[in-house]
Amino acid sequence: MERRFRSLRSSIPMLALLALGVVGRAMAMDGAPGGQEPKQIIGTKSVLVALVKFLDVPNSLEPAHFKKLIFSDLNGYLKEVSYGKASIAGDVTDRWYSLPKPLSSYTDPGINRGMRQLRFLDDAVKAIDDYVNFTKYEFLIFVYSGRDFLISGDPKDMEPFCSRGPYRLDTGDGKVSVGVTVAAEFDPLGPFAHGLLRNFGLENLYVWEGGKALDPVQEWDPMAHGYWAGNGSSPVHPRAWNKLKLGWIGQGEVASVEEGGVSTLDLAPLGGGTGASSPKALRIGVSKGLSLFMEYRVRAGFDSQLPGEGLLVYYVREGLGEGYGPMRVVDSKPGTPTLNDAPFLPGGIFQNSSLGITAFVLKSSGSGCTVKVDRTGLPPMVALKVSANVANATIEVDGRPIKLEGYSSTLALPIGEHALKADPMIQTGSSRAIFASWNGSLVANPISIAIRSDSSLIASYRIQYPLRIRSALGDVSGDGWYDEGTRARIRAIGAREFGNGTRAVFSGWSGDLSSAEAESEILVDSPKEVVANWRRQYSVRVGFSGLPEGSRAGLWVNGREMWTRVPEKISLWLDAGGEISLAVNKTLTADGAKFELVRIEDPQGRQAEFPTEVGGPKEFLIVYKKASILPIEGGPDFGRLVESLVRGFVEALRRLLEKGIGKALGAVGMPSAP
């Protein structure tokens, strides 16, 4: 259906406006060709909805439908747009009354449009005259059976029309002046809202030029095309100018800025309720009869079907008369074909140099809009050149992200305070840039600066490169991001044991660093990758058996001499995949006794063979036994003699230390000195 409405706007020159506009002139029979200027509409207004059907077009809808449409939906719309200051109440005829003629009598193209409308009104009034007291009502809505020509496009259907202000009717109750709206049975809410507002005295906002109607307001007011919003189900709010005329906005709710002044204002949404403390509009009188209006529109309530949101700016020329376009909307994006994107958004600037007026939209939300208005006439815009030492950096200016073109961009900004925020970090392939300062000294980010003339600002970044450390075993530290030119310290744990007789031993760095030192330095002047290399080692444990406790025992491991005290074992680590060879003394003396090597065993008690591969943890046991001393046949037992002498000598030495030399010598049967 929306496509039909839009096509009618272009193919049938503004029929939606003409039928409810120019036709109004034909109805202005009281000597006011352009209708009457609106009066304040406050309080509850009485309305009669009269249902009439053509002789050959039966009705489809019942009176209950129009009771809801007019006294619930239309009344709700009126209450919202007037902030509760106006409403309607009244009656719907209890049935459809028959007109005396068929539909074609009121659509005959051979009869002047105004005459056709007068014929319809005369017949409709007569059809209900005996059943209605016209003096009870201020507004009269006739609903005819069938379709609306503006929707169907069929010339056999009748088009709706209405009066601007009251229209004088001759009735059985005498002459009455009522606002008159005529609409079709299947019309949605929009045409009824448009008709009633025109009955209140609001004028259509089109421009009639060269036989064509132009629309300088489009979707932004119900006296333009805005009454078709949401396919006619959600007519938009009238502009602040129209609400002022009807008394729905007071002068105290409209802000202004004096010539030569600068003011920052908060505007409440025009569609907001009466509780808003901020002004609902800004009005600047620029010359006699010419005003500049600004108002903030958001999608809410009956404005929910607006084509956009933001600060709307428009000019109003008072006293032009209907058909001359008293209102002109300023398009924030004149390059687009419609006014759907006309509102100014945060960061947007309206400027009229000839009038010395500049407006900056600083911020907006669902609850309001902040706008700065400058009427000083000073050059309002200055150039700010923003540069960075990295390409394509993004700088936020007053909340708007701006990507630099290469290494710099020049922005046009209004004079005043501005907030700038640099990208904290920029990833550039294998490196990154970290914000450092503005102009080499301001390290805060974001910053607020006052710009009064053409200026420049440089965002400085530190270039960083990654240092990656790869390690299959063991623990390393020092990897990460470093500023360009930094000498980074890296470290590897010398060895890491895994608790099962296995460990990893650091063997050196490779990649972008060649070093055998576990703790080293590397210059980070580009992306670096270092590999920590490790050797796997296994434990080797060697114990001794058959020797007295505390005796000193030694062996050679791969030619390396090692010693221990029994029963302590000798422990060492050898590289995985290598070989191990053990060598020991075949005899040794301990505690005065001689011991002989029996063999070297593995943990299973088997004879160990050398060399053997180090394929895992190893344990060996070196087994000794005490050597036997045999006597000489037929002679003295020298073994026992030697053993007796040794024992005697040891005992004498002990006594010598304890009791003196004399007693010691006596103990072994030797005379003491005289």
Topology:
Blueprint: H1 2-11, H2 15-18, H3 22-27, E1 43-53, H4 63-81, E2 86-92, E3 97-98, H5 113-129, E4 139-144, H6 149-152, E5 161-171, E6 174-184, H7 189-199, E7 207-209, E8 212-214, H8 240-246, E9 254-255, E10 262-267, E11 281-287, E12 290-297, E13 310-317, E14 327-329, E15 349-352, E16 357-365, E17 368-374, E18 381-388, E19 394-397, E20 400-403, E21 408-414, E22 416-422, E23 425-428, E24 431-438, E25 447-451, E26 455-471, E27 476-477, E28 480-483, E29 486-492, E30 495-497, E31 502-511, E32 519-524, E33 528-545, E34 552-557, E35 560-565, E36 570-575, E37 579-580, E38 582-583, E39 587-590, E40 593-601, E41 612-613, E42 618-626, H9 638-659, H10 661-667
Parallel strand pairs: 1-2, 1-3, 1-4, 4-6, 9-11, 18-26, 26-33, 33-42
Antiparallel strand pairs: 5-6, 7-8, 10-17, 11-12, 12-13, 13-14, 15-16, 16-17, 18-21, 19-20, 19-22, 22-25, 23-24, 24-26, 26-28, 27-29, 29-32, 30-31, 31-33, 33-36, 34-35, 34-38, 37-41, 39-40, 40-42
Tally the helices: what do you get? 10
Kindly estimate the percentage of residues that lie in beta strands according to DSSP: 35-45%
CATH class of the largest domain: Alpha Beta
Low-confidence stretches: 1-34, 631-635, 662-674
Number of domains: 5
Helix content: 10-25%
Give the rounded overall mean pLDDT. Answer: 87
| Head-to-tail CA distance between termini | 148 Å
CATH-derived topology of the largest domain: Collagenase (Catalytic Domain)
Shape: elongated
Radius of gyration: 53 Å
Alpha-beta classification:
alpha+beta
CATH architecture of the largest domain: 3-Layer(aba) Sandwich
- Largest β-sheet summary: 13 strands, mixed
* Overall number of strands: 42
Oligomer: single chain
